[in-house]
Amino acid sequence: MRGGWANQSGPGPLGPAGGPSGRYLLACAALMLLALFLLDVAAGLYLFLPLVGRRNAGVKFYRLIFLIGGVLALCAAIAHAMAGRQDLAYADTAIVALTIVALIVLRYPKRLIFRATAALLGAAYLVSSIAAYHAAVRPSHVAWSIAGALASIGLLGSVNLAMLLGHWYLVVRGMSIDPLKRLTIATLVAAIVKIVLVVIVIAVAWPPPVTKDIFFWMRAGWGLLGPLALYPMVWGTVKIRSTMAATGILYVDVVAVVIGEVLGGWLSAIARLPL
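-> structure tokens emitted (275 positions)
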């Protein structure tokens, strides 16, 4: 039991929990999904930063995103350790260490030491997120883990970074609207990619039992259709440079995506497929 829930045999991670061992596995599964969510947000925030550009937002915005990502990765490491997955906890800790180094060398953006650190940090986020997805969801093939992790990173990262950037326009007056335009388009692309992935999964696993669950339709409504419905409003306010209105709508977008991804992670762990 001490080796972590992912090493156990039997039904899915969120199956019936009859007895102490079942409750232990259920708690570990919840911790694994929590760590996965935190890693996906942190990875998305970091990997979408190039769409913002340091010259546009300034070094303080980059420092803020690095700090948020580092804290989220640290929380993910704690969750993985509590779930008995020390290997994943060490990987998350490596992200924290690389984030600290990146913060130190952030003042030298054109030097090799920063570029190398930034590249290593991006690779560490990708590898750790895919590994965490594979351990939490346990799909039949690693390709599902890669697709599921990348889709979640894209959706969570683009929406959350767009919302944070919207706030940053109140700090840096006169900043170009182009970064927010790029992130707004990225949210649309990420939502479409996520929908396509879910449709493919449903087609491959037809008839998937989770589609009979009301939580699946809540997931589809909030996390998949929600961003699509909100995109025209966000884009309309961004085009007229109404950043405060855009940020307010992006708040709603973040809530919808977070609810959708939390439900999606739970359903994915049950079906062992990216949903």
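The chain has one domain: 19-271.
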